[in-house]
Amino acid sequence: MAWVALIVAGVFETFGVAMMNQYSVSRSWKPLALLILGFCISLFLLDYAMHTISMGTAYAIWTGIGVVGGTIVGMLFYGESKDWKRVLCIFIILCASIGLKIVS
């Protein structure tokens, strides 16, 4: 269950980052409220996961999901570069995250 919570925490971190970008564009209260909500849920779930998963592994996976998720959201919805080097870096982060899960 801790691993599921950690993955969902990473998804909410990605959501928070997307709302941060929305807020920087519109400066309205709705993206700001969703940003705060997304990060609060993310941190709550990260805390829950860290009761079972070691801190280093949990934090690395959480940030990896956030980095990959934020980059993919940027590519798909905000017109960021889809250069093969960026995709390769995402692949490397995913492999490292899977490796951490395997050795944990």
Automatic annotation (TrEMBL):
GO MF term (any one): transmembrane transporter activity
Q: Per the record, GO CC terms?
A: plasma membrane
Subcellular localization: Cell membrane
* Membrane topology type: Multi-pass membrane protein
Membrane-spanning segments = 32-50, 57-78, 84-103
Any one Pfam family here would be Multi_Drug_Res
Gene3D superfamilies hit by this protein: 1.10.3730.20
Which keywords describe this protein according to UniProt?
Cell membrane, Membrane, Transmembrane, Transmembrane helix, Transport
PANTHER family associated with the record:
GUANIDINIUM EXPORTER, SMR FAMILY PROTON-DEPENDENT DRUG EFFLUX TRANSPORTER SUGE
Family designation: Belongs to the drug/metabolite transporter (DMT) superfamily. Small multidrug resistance (SMR) (TC 2.A.7.1) family.
What name has this protein been given in UniProt?
A: Paired small multidrug resistance pump
Q: Which organism is it from?
A: Ureibacillus chungkukjangi
